[in-house]
Amino acid sequence: MTLTMRKFTTLSSVAAPIMRVNIDTDAIIPSREMKGVTKDGLSVGMFANWRYTNVDARVENPDFILNKAPFRDAEILLSGENFGCGSSREHAVWALKEWGIRCVIAPSFGTIFYGNCVRNGILPIVLSEDNVKAFAVVAERGANGTLFTVDLLAQTVTSPEGGAHAFYIAPADKEMLVEGLDPIGLTLKQDDAILAFREKDMAQRPWVYL
Amino acid sequence: MGRTLIQKLWDAHTVADLGDDATLLYMDRVFLHERTGSVSLKGLEAAGRKVRNPEQVFCTMDHIVDTLPGRGDDTIMPSGKNFITTTRDAAKAAGIKLFDIGDDRQGIVHVVSAEQGITLPGLTQVCPDSHTCTLGALGALAWGIGSTEGEHALATKTLAVNKPKSMRVSFDGELGFGVTAKDMILHLIGEYTAAGGVGHAIEFTGSAIRALPQENRFTVCNMAIEFAAFTGVIPPDDTTIEYVRGRPYAPTGETWDAAVAYWQTLKADEDATYDKDIAIDCGDIIPKITWGTSPGHTSQIDGTVPDPSEAPDANAKTSWERALEYMNLKPGQPIEGVPIDAAFIGSCTNSRLSDLREVVKVVKGHRVAEGVKAIVVPGSSQVKLAAEAEGIDQALVDAGFEWRESGCSMCFYAGGESFGEQERVVSSTNRNFENRQGPRTRTHLASPTSVAASAIAGKIADVRKLG
Question: Which contacts (CB < 8 Å, 24+ apart) does range B217-220 have?
Answer without folding.
Answer: B217/B137, B217/B181, B218/B110, B218/B111, B218/B114, B218/B134, B218/B135, B218/B137, B218/B348, B218/B352, B219/B180, B219/B181, B219/B182, B219/B185, B219/B349, B219/B350, B219/B355, B220/B137, B220/B181, B220/B184, B220/B185
